[in-house]
Amino acid sequence: MVDGDYRLDEFFQRYRAACPDVEPTPNFMPILWERIEGRRGFAFTFERMARPAMTIFAALCLLLLVLNVAGTGQGSVAPPTYTDALAADSTAEKTDYTEAIWNNPTSFQAPQELRAQHR
Amino acid sequence: MLIEQELIERARTGDPQAFNQVVLAYRKRILGTISRLIGRPEDVEDVAQEVFVRLYYSLDQLRTAEVFEPWLYRLTVNASYDYLRRVKRRSESRMADLSEQQVMMADSIAGGRQEDEERQKGKTREFMDALFRHVSDEDRLLLTLKEVEGLSLKELEQIYGAKENALKVRLFRARQRVLKAYEAAKADGRL
């Protein structure tokens, strides 16, 4: 393995020599600046779009907040009673379900064995 | 350091002339490093430009000018790693699956014949590429920086921001894998 290590080191050196020192082409700098500007262009476009979007969202949030507060304010003028709240909560679905239970008296009966034990 | 710290400071403030000077001072070194890291001369310039674009947009994050070189190396390693991932030319091939061309190339390297020098170098690069398929891209880069570029563990510590012992372990394992592949190639008479 020591011999292998030595040979591998040698091979690494050969690889180093095989990788040439690349000379930059005359276009290196112009292309580099093009790429920098290109990326800056994207960054600027994003920033330009992001700023108005943020303003619009902030305004929208403010508007919703105002509407919410106004809505709550109106409610506080005539606070709903407990029965009003219950009535408002009884949706059509709940009503159907409740009615179905009340119309089926067997659903309230305990199993026969339990009734016998109870007697 | 190839340049004055003051120049880096000026580049950090957005002075394009200063940045130009920084690039001119370092580009040859970075091109050479990338050439050895990725082993494909045709794409070296493209990766180097990516490094300098990243440098341009990240200079303001540099804490002090003193750590400029490790910072630049880190950008170089990251861009090379991204390149290797993007190309993903590597297959799951093992040494046994090396193409006929690669086997011939290995033979000619071993024989040390006086062939065309450039062709020989190309073959050496290809063979090293085949050996590097036995380690991850990260380890390939680490191993190249240490064994080919000749960076010290201290320098690697600065570039990777990792502890020396962790780097030693990682290097040892990567080297063992490459060595195993190298020995296998030798045993098969391909090297």
Give a description of the structure.
- The complex is a heterodimer of chains A (119) and B (191).
- The termini of chain A are far apart.
- Chain A is elongated, with a radius of gyration of 40 Å.
- Chain A contains five helices and no strands.
- Chain A has 119 residues and is an all-alpha fold.
- Chain A has helices spanning 2-18, 28-77, 82-89, 92-103, 112-118.
- The mean pLDDT of chain A is 75.
- Chain B folds into two domains: 5-87, RNA polymerase sigma factor, region 2, helix turn helix motif (Rna Polymerase Sigma Factor, Chain: A), CATH 1.10.1740.10; 95-187, Orthogonal Bundle (Arc Repressor Mutant, subunit A).
- Chain B is globular.
- Residues 90-98 of chain B have low confidence and may be disordered.
- The chains are: A mainly alpha (119), B mainly alpha (191).
- At the A-B interface, helix 1 and helix 2 of A face helix 2, helix 3, helix 6 and helix 9 of B.
CATH class of the largest domain in chain B: Mainly Alpha
Overall geometry of chain B comes to: globular
Number of helices of chain B: 9
Structural class of chain A: mainly alpha
Strand content of chain A: under 5%
Taking Cα atoms only, what radius of gyration of chain B do you get, to the nearest Å?
19 Å
Helix-strand pattern of chain A, N to C?
Answer: HHHHH
Q: Which percent range fits the helix content of chain B? A: over 70%
β-sheet strand percentage of chain B: under 5%
Q: Low-confidence parts of chain B, pLDDT < 50 over ≥5 residues?
A: 90-98
| End-to-end gap of chain B | 40 Å
Q: Give the CATH topology of the largest domain in chain B.
A: Arc Repressor Mutant, subunit A
Task: Label the structural class of chain B.
Answer: mainly alpha
* Secondary structure tally: strands of chain A: 0
CATH architecture annotation of the largest domain in chain B: Orthogonal Bundle
- Using DSSP, what is the number of strands of chain B? 0
